[in-house]
Give the backbone structure.
Amino acid sequence: MFKNFTSKSFEFKSLVIILFITLLVYLNHFDNPFFFDDYHTITENESIRSLDNWTSFFSNADTFSSLPANRSYRPVITLMNAIDYALANGLNSKYYHYHIFFWFLVLIILMFRLTKHIYEKSLGKYQWIGVTALFATAWFALHTANAETINYICARSDSFSSLCTVASLLLYIYPFGKKWHLYLIPMIIGIWTKQTGVMVFPILLAYIILFENHSLLTDFKTDTKQKIIEVFKKIAPTAIITTSLFIFNQYYLTPESTDSTNYVVTRFEYISTQCYVIIHYLGNFILPINLSADPDITIIKPWYNFKILLGVLIILGMLFLMIKTAFKKELRPIAFGILWFFIALIPTSLNPLFQTANDHRMFFPFIGLFIAVPWGILIILKKYNVFEKGKKYTIGIATVLSIILIGHGYGTFQRSKIWNSEESLWLDVTKKSPKNGRGQMNYGLTQMEKGKFDVALEYFNKADKLIPNYYILHINLGIVHGAKKEYPIAERYFKSAIQLNSSAPAAEYYYGRYLSEQKKYNEAEVYLKKALVKSPNHILSKELLKQISNKIVTSEKEIKILLKKIKTNPDIESYINLSLIYYKDKKYKLVISTCKELLKIDPNNALAYNNICSAHNQMEQWKLGAEACKKALEINPDYQLAKNNLKWATDNINN
């Protein structure tokens, strides 16, 4: 009756159908745009715009991102982004999605091979193994939570590094790959894709102990030393290479500017909160109806909060189940899957990151659950002899499982629609994660781009209550107030954004852009150059600087214009501006003479006296500087800059 279910032909055709249905489900995602971290790694990153320097991706982590704080060592991702840019002949997100989806289909095929092999290691040639492996594969392919990773271009680091882990494990399993150590190749590529790739080491160790050297568990007391040595020999190449690569990449190839650890929270607070985050992830595995592109889970205090204690209880329950199933051969896929889940979570659970939770992080850990849960279902059905009770029961089970797959396929299609635009995505975040200030800000940004400045300001103000010191929010507040022609407020927000941030070029770039829109090209040049000092490959700053280059007035040209203007129609502003240019060019004597000419037509100009004071101070003529500042303060006792310059002069006189 079930003979066809065990044939190679049935499995091949079923796998082709799974791939085809996956394509149909994701057919609406290929036009989805760049989002979030895609900007600093792709659209604003000059490094990926040419493949001529591709070797530098592996030696210089600065090429990964235009933001100094985000420069992780992920050369394979940078190379992929550069390849897609070259194929698209520009920034066309379709090509990125084509590339990501191709490797996703490859991973689906490898998932089938891995699950079937693990199941066979536990139960031999049982007739329902192939079907169970196909269900596990289809569930993985269509699961709605995975849409968060496949739709997000920057998250290709999660999907591709997971592929490398599965490929490495499969190559180890097959004698040819093990003999020639071919499994080490995808392992290295995976680590160069994302640091979580080092987890292939404990995952492979778990496989060896559970499925190859399982006597270490079942008969630990006999020849223990010999068994441990045997396991060590098998795992040694992986252990040595993963550890060495991780240390070398992290401490020698990652720039000092990289800021991936959140020191604002304690490690204990972060790790204890992860107990609840794991509940959040498990909830999304079971029923992914609250997926968010930017969850609003924050640090939970105190450690005995109910959410944390519930998480601890669930984790302990899963670990107990893992230990119990590890000692029984036919249950070991459950133990292996649970181990995979927890091992894959280690990098994001133990090291405090700025985002406490992120739904695209589920992709790698969930592979373990896609191995464990279907096998658990099969074992339960086998235990109660459901398959032997007749065709009616089998059809009923198939119907239930089909409904699960159809539900996930529909959910994935809908999630891809939400990822279809910035507006739909961030509106979804405001609903699913209302306490996320960044989500409120980003939705406001979509409204600002549509010219709905008041609506944008409403969401920016909501965000300001949640994240008052977020420099990007201050940039956007500057932009929206500038658009509303509220220039003093705009200036204040741009300058506060610059003060709040020390490493990213965005604050200087957007202020430079604002100044260029105000036709203050010289001032804009100053800030754009500051942005490029922070990030030399920030393409937006380079492009804007190039655009305004012919509008920037050089000092010599500006001096000639002002001198001509003073000669024909002398005015106070021209004298002050001329003195400031001389000061910038370090022509301090000309600053003094220009300000003295100004004092002839305006004897009570405090600004002129202050500029004279500054010029004398620069030439270390402290007494003359002090005299000029005192005159400035006689005219305007509240003139703070003159007070500062007077202090500068008097401090040096006293010394």
Remarks:
- The mean pLDDT is 94.
- DSSP finds 31 helices and no strands in the chain.
- Residues 93-123 form the longest helix (31 residues).
- The CA atoms of residues 169 and 204 lie 7 Å apart.
